[in-house]
């Protein structure tokens, strides 16, 4: 069950129902998706986002493909379905893992109806497991905070909450777990330019639950750490290499350096599905480059006579160029600890803790 009062991802009688996160915080609109192509568009265009949520959605997407077919399925056709879905967003490893497991599960199955049943049930299983893992991760995260303190000031980046997962969240999950343990948590949410996951989504989630939250622009964290006591920075991740280098939303790297400069512990919240142990370092993590327009323009949603519409505006001269890497890689040396569903540990313990 999601920590929110509604489910951002649900499966209703063979239809994938997704909250369109692009319209938050002003409008809660649900997309009814019945095809794999529709699912790929929803992922690519950010109606759904956040590494775990993308993985769950992707598996429902391939189930939709199988649902629309009958008769026998060749291994080539199955490979091609998995490949198409994998291309939707490249940086987070969760979807790649989930698709690999989806492929293994149907190795002995050769008709589309049975493949549909396997993938449908796998997607539901992923949701349940992700929620269970987030809750365990949250409990371990609480142990890193001084039990004698009553109030914690925490900076977070992007959105890692119930909107990005099957519920509870990873970095926001630790915040929720601290609150559930009776602590007062004051959250500073980086707005997260250019897609504003922090100001639109994290602030929305915190307000829904009455957790005190202040939006800061991405450049304010140095000032904040220099002028107020900050207990920790908590972020999520999209892919962690074997040495602990971590890809996460663009701006995470800057935040980690500022935290190091102020001796504020920088924690990365990750479930096992975030670790890509085939990669020795973060240098080969693929970084998704998105459209320049996400940086040079903004879209705001305006309510006129009850109608919601999107009005594009410019934040830069017409014709100005922009770079828009959607993620960056934080070197392991800036990460004090990973917080996972099986405990907390520094980067050098990754190979041992993941038993590979
Ligand atoms: O581009 P997004 O919004 O999908 O990026 C999301 C993030 O970077 C999150 O921090 C990450 O996926 C972890 S969500 C638990």
Topology summary:
Layout: E1 9-12, E2 15-19, E3 30-33, H1 36-44, H2 51-67, H3 75-86, H4 94-105, H5 112-142, E4 151-156, H6 171-180, E5 184-190, H7 197-209, E6 212-216, H8 221-227, E7 232-235, E8 239-241, E9 246-249, H9 252-261, E10 266-269, E11 275-276, H10 293-296, E12 297-304, E13 307-314, E14 327-330, E15 337-340, E16 343-345, H11 350-353
Parallel strand pairs: 4-5, 4-7, 5-6, 7-10, 8-11, 10-15
Antiparallel strand pairs: 1-2, 2-3, 8-9, 9-14, 12-13, 15-16
Helix pairs in contact: 1-2, 2-3, 2-4, 2-5, 3-4, 5-6
The chain binds 5-S-methyl-1-O-phosphono-5-thio-D-ribulose (MRU).
Residues 49-52, 92, 158, 160, 164-165, 170, 197, 236-238, 248-249, 326 line the site of 5-S-methyl-1-O-phosphono-5-thio-D-ribulose.
GO biological process, one term: L-methionine salvage from methylthioadenosine
Active site: 238
Catalytic activity: 5-(methylsulfanyl)-alpha-D-ribose 1-phosphate = 5-(methylsulfanyl)-D-ribulose 1-phosphate
Helix content: 25-40%
What low-confidence regions span 5 or more consecutive residues with pLDDT below 50? none
Enumerate the strands of the largest sheet in spatial order, edge to edge or round the barrel: 6-5-4-7-10-15-16
Strand segment count: 16
Shape: globular
Cofactors, ions and other ligands in the entry: 5-S-methyl-1-O-phosphono-5-thio-D-ribulose
CATH superfamily of the largest domain: Translation initiation factor eif-2b, domain 2
CATH topology of the largest domain: Rossmann fold
| String of helices and strands | EEEHHHHHEHEHEHEEEHEEHEEEEEH
Number of helices: 11
Spatial separation of the terminal alpha carbons: 32 Å
Q: Would you state the CATH class of the largest domain?
A: Alpha Beta
Rg from C-alpha positions?
Answer: 20 Å
Most strands sheet = 7 strands, mixed
Secondary-structure-derived class: alpha/beta
GO molecular function, one term: S-methyl-5-thioribose-1-phosphate isomerase activity
Family: Belongs to the EIF-2B alpha/beta/delta subunits family. MtnA subfamily.
Function: Catalyzes the interconversion of methylthioribose-1-phosphate (MTR-1-P) into methylthioribulose-1-phosphate (MTRu-1-P).
GO biological process, one term: L-methionine salvage from methylthioadenosine
